[in-house]
Each structure stands twice: as structure tokens, then as C-alpha cells.
Design brief:
460 residues; alpha/beta; Rossmann fold; pyruvate-formate lyase- activating enzyme; OB fold (Dihydrolipoamide Acetyltransferase, E2P); 5-stranded mixed barrel; 13 helices; 18 strands
């Protein structure tokens, strides 16, 4: 029986894809190895959103091949879809499988050559079995390259993802792909058109998690707010949320990132009034400059974005509100950045994910003039991170002396347990508490690492 190891790179969507691959490999009779050095087959499920993500994958291939030269390395995911020949040229790679053929990864990993049922590029051949040259000068088989038209891809499989080292708060991907064409983003080219997990399948997965005892489930997607628009009928994201509330026993539902134009009044009202949906809104911003947003091909303006955020805050006074912000987009001037900085200062964010622009081959932005110097990008990144840290600390300090509900996650060696509040605040509690348990804790202090709290002493 063959053993396998799956290593995921990048976002939650990639991790969700990796969970599906692991499930399918086990269904094929393969067993988890626990580490790449002990596996006969290693699947690298890649990201390509930045140049650094690509470098991480190449380094991992070389490291694994050096540590375990007899294993077969299969590379799949977004980087495999974008640059298969680049990956295939790296020693140790047995097959490159794009997102277009990710559903066949388990079939290929289990050593079955699908032949005519799975197109592969001319001149490449599938390497079956372990790479075992019979002589010192023998060459390993050429890697097979299985990459097709991602825009013809319509499949979407689901499997829950768990945070490393924890069995709480599973993440379920219910949407993939994107129909937007942001000028800086390579995702549509490597993940294809927007497609949704059907309602019945989503409800089945959520209910299975609830019956397994999980208290909170996070639903995610590449463009989550567009869920259902490719399905028959007039489905909208709000309809999915209502169905989960009405047809499953899940105690708490958390929504991952949703674009600003999809935070409708109906969605805001639903999240604000349901005690089973976490008070948490992650709303990508990217830039506070109208000129830069237009160059990015984003579908909203700064004033529209600000209006949505203020509506969310009005409806949910204590909600976590976060955003993605990019610095260093080509042509971003000091004035453009000052507008972003001012908007970030004005809006009631409780945290930010600040990213530095990375040129992606094939995107319009990569060909634009005015590429910003790296030192200036780093400085702008630092400024926004400092603002975000200040806002986050002020938000945390507003809960000092109060009692908040949180879900226990895991225990650290230092003897404290980490928990997460409904509004996305990390909470350190004394002692070793059972994971996946609701607790009411009194907040005693706040610092950059999060909140510290205590549990009430039982009355004697």
C-alpha cells in the first residue's frame, strides 16, 4: 500500500483543495505518511499569487527530492496551471497537474496512467511507480504535464479544512474561480470562472460537520459573495446563509472574505440580526485611491466602499471589520498612497491584511509603467501595518473588564489555552481547556498578541 503526503501553499482555497486531494487519496487505498521524508508520493498543492509563492514551491521540490529521492513528486494547483514547463524542468518532479485536472490527482498519484481519458501534453509521459534509476547514469522518466483549458473546468469538490494542529473551526470552500478581471490578479487565469458548490451538497457537508460536534464552521471561496449565480434559479449568497441557518443544526457560521459590492443591505441585516452568524466582516479594499482602483479594474469607488463599511459598523457596533490593502501598485504616487492612508485612518477597521504588489506574468499590471521601487513599497507597507496595529489594539482595549463568549481552540506548552471570540479576537485563558468548547471569559488585559482573560470561579 502506497503512502502519501500533501503539502499546501497559500490561501484557504488552496488548503481546501488539498483536503479534497487527501480524502480522495485515502479513498484510493493510500495511507498518510505524516512527513514528506517518509512518503512514497508527495503532492505539492501550489499557490502563484506572488513571486515569493513560486519560489517557496521550487525550494520545497528541491528540498524534498534531496531528502527523499525515491519518492514521486506530483505538483498541482495554481502555479502548476500557470507555468507547468517551468516546474517540470526541476529535478525530482514526476508529474505536473494543473487545476484543470486536479480531480484526477488521486488517480495519477495512485500509479494509474489514465491514458486517453486524461489529455497530456505531447512529448511528455506519465511516470509510474517510484523513480528508481537502474544505473548511475540512468535518467528518470520525463514528467507528465496534465494541463488544459481552465475556463472549461466546471467541477468543484468540497472537503473541510482544519487549522494546523487543531480540530476546531473547519473551513468549507463553497465557491471557486472568479469572473472579475482585476489587472493585478492571476487567479482567474489559474482557477477559471466562478462556480458554486450546489446548495444540497453544501448543506450536507455543513450538517455532517455539525453532527460530528464542530461548533463553528467557516465558509469560504475565491469570490464568495458570488455564490449561486452560476446555479439554476435566482440564487444569491444570502439564500445560502438562510438555508444553512434553517436546514442545519450548526451553532455558529463564520463568513470569510466578501467583496464590497456583495455586502448588500440584506446581507448586512442578516449577519447583524442572527446570533448564529459571527459578527465579522472581511471586505477587500486594495486601495483608497479612486485612480488606482480604476487602474486595478476594481468595481467600486472609495466612497462606495466607505459607505458599505459604515453601514456594517452601524448595524454591528462590535463586529470585527477587516480588509486587504495593497501597496505599490504600478504608478501608485505619494498622493495615491496618502489617499489610501487617509481612508484606512477614517474607517472603523479592527485589523488589516497589508500586501506588497507582486508582478504576475500575463496580468495587465505587470506591463504597466511606473513600477514602484521595492524600498518605497516596504515603507508604505510598514506605515499601514502600524495603523492597523494601533486600530486593533484600541478595539481590543474596548473590551477590558467585560465578559465575552469564545470558542476554545488549542492549548500551548506554556499551559494556556487559546480561544476565539465571535468578533474574531484571540483570547488567552489560563490552564488546559478542552478544545471546541464555548466559554464566557472576563477580559483582563490586551496587548499585541491578543486578549488575556479568566473564567469565572464556580460558586462553592
Amino acid at each position: 500500500m502506497s503512502s502519501f503526503y500533501v503539502e499546501n501553499f497559500g490561501c484557504r482555497a488552496t488548503q481546501a483543495d488539498g483536503a479534497v486531494i487527501e480524502r480522495e487519496l485515502q479513498q484510493c487505498g493510500m495511507t498518510p505518511a505524516g512527513a514528506p521524508g517518509r512518503a512514497q508520493v508527495v503532492v505539492l498543492n501550489t499557490c502563484t499569487v506572488t513571486a515569493a509563492a513560486d519560489r517557496d514551491v521550487r525550494a520545497a521540490i528541491r528540498r524534498i527530492h534531496r531528502q527523499n529521492p525515491r519518492c514521486r513528486i506530483l505538483v498541482t494547483g495554481c502555479y502548476a496551471q500557470r507555468a507547468p514547463h517551468e516546474i517540470a524542468a526541476i529535478p525530482g518532479v514526476s508529474a505536473v497537474i494543473g487545476n484543470s485536472h486536479k480531480a484526477q490527482v488521486a488517480q495519477l498519484a495512485s500509479g494509474r496512467d489514465p491514458g486517453g481519458s486524461l489529455p497530456k501534453e505531447a512529448g511528455a509521459r506519465f511516470a509510474t511507480g517510484l523513480v528508481q534509476p537502474t544505473a548511475a547514469d540512468a535518467s528518470p522518466p520525463l514528467p507528465g504535464i496534465y494541463v488544459g483549458d481552465i475556463f472549461a473546468h466546471t467541477e468543484l469538490a468540497a472537503a473541510p479544512v482544519f487549522e494546523a494542529g487543531a480540530r476546531t473551526r473547519p473551513n468549507l470552500k463553497v465557491q471557486d474561480g472568479c469572473n472579475h478581471r482585476c489587472s493585478f490578479c492571476v487567479i482567474p487565469a489559474v482557477r477559471g470562472r466562478s462556480r458554486s458548490l450546489p446548495l444540497a451538497e453544501t448543506l450536507r457537508e455543513v450538517q455532517a460537520l455539525a453532527e460530528a460536534g464542530y461548533r463553528e464552521v467557516v465558509i469560504s471561496g475565491i469570490d464568495l459573495g458570488r455564490w449561486g449565480r452560476d446555479l439554476p434559479g435566482q440564487n444569491r449568497f444570502e439564500d445560502l446563509l438562510l438555508a444553512i441557518l434553517e436546514q442545519t443544526s450548526l451553532e455558529k457560521l463564520r463568513i470569510s472574505s466578501v467583496e464590497p459590492m456583495d455586502w448588500s443591505d440584506r446581507l448586512i441585516a442578516l449577519v447583524a440580526t442572527s446570533n448564529r452568524i459571527a459578527q465579522h466582516a472581511h471586505v477587500p479594499l486594495q486601495s483608497g485611491s479612486d485612480r488606482v482602483l480604476r487602474q486595478m479594474h476594481r468595481k467600486y469607488r472609495p466612497w462606495h466602499y466607505a459607505e458599505r463599511i459604515r453601514k456594517i459598523r452601524e448595524a454591528m457596533p462590535e463586529a470585527a471589520i477587516g480588509a486587504d490593502v495593497m501597496v505599490g501598485f504600478p504608478g501608485e504616487t505619494d498622493l495615491d498612497f496618502a489617499e489610501t492612508q487617509a481612508l484606512v485612518e477614517q474607517l472603523p477597521f479592527t485589523y488589516l491584511h497589508v500586501f506588497t504588489y507582486s508582478a504576475r506574468p500575463g496580468t495587465p499590471a505587470a506591463q504597466m509603467s511606473g513600477q514602484v521601487a521595492a524600498p518605497l513599497m516596504r515603507e508604505r507597507n510598514r506605515i499601514l501595518r502600524e495603523i492597523a496595529a494601533r486600530k486593533k489594539l484600541a478595539f481590543m482595549q474596548s473590551f477590558l473588564g467585560r465578559t465575552i463568549d469564545a470558542l476554545t481552540l488549542h492549548t500551548y506548552e506554556g499551559g494556556h489555552t487559546e480561544a476565539l471570540s465571535d468578533n474574531y479576537l484571540k483570547l488567552r485563558l489560563p490552564g488546559r481547556l478542552e478544545a471546541n468548547r464555548w466559554v464566557a471569559a472576563q477580559v483582563e488585559s490586551a496587548d499585541a498578541a491578543g486578549l488575556t482573560g479568566t473564567l469565572p470561579t464556580p460558586e462553592s
